[in-house]
Amino acid sequence: MPSSAPSILYIHGLNSAPTSNKASQLARAIEHGGLSAQVRIPALHHHPRQAIAQLQAAIAELGRPLLVGSSLGGYYATYLAEQHGLNALLINPAVRPHRLFGGREIEQTNHYTGETWQLTHDHVAALAELEVVEPQDAQRYHVWLQTADETLDYRQAEAFYQGCSLDIQEGGDHGYQGFAGRLPEMLALAGFAPAIWQDFDFSTL
């Protein structure tokens, strides 16, 4: 596939998976459009270094995808967008997540696969390695936030991405309510032609 072709790399969050609500809705929309070859929704390893290696490989396959990152995936997407000069859409993104764990090693469970694993000091150190300064090319970033996010304080992302295109909705939750209805905006940001979905009812996702 030519690197100039529109494409999306969807990056799920901590203890999430390609079967999450948002990822599944995106996958169904892409399948309808016959564009599955231009989208990657990888099942990421829980360790940041392995996850980033998976994402780097996906970028190499796709060329210059729109990075769509949810929660921790937003943190990964920011790192990769800065490294490769890519555009990114961030949905309730984590900001400096390595500062949230308080030095504790905690057993984790993936909400979708049931996998259990131990979050260690090495996980946290690996997250810290990915920290970047506030985006220098703010026009490359779109950030969607909902104020009733029960997991992350949206104000941290509002401050970090203050120079970017910020869309802040009152209410909602960490999973981002109404995501399916905003898929046409995401697909347009990636460069897909609106005509592909003109007969598709996104409310059915």
Share of helix, binned: 25-40%
The residue ranges in which pLDDT falls below 50 over 5 or more consecutive positions are: none
Tally of separate helices = 6
CATH fold label? Rossmann fold
Question: What structural class do helix, strand and pairing data support?
Answer: alpha/beta
Helix/strand order: EHEHEHEEEHEHEH
**Rg (CA only):** 16 Å
Examine the secondary-structure arrangement and name the CATH architecture.
3-Layer(aba) Sandwich
Structural domain tally: 1
Please tally the β strands and state the result: 8
How confident is the prediction overall: mean pLDDT? 95
Question: What is the CATH H-level superfamily?
Answer: Alpha/Beta hydrolase fold, catalytic domain
The neighbouring-strand order within the major sheet is 2-1-3-4-7-8
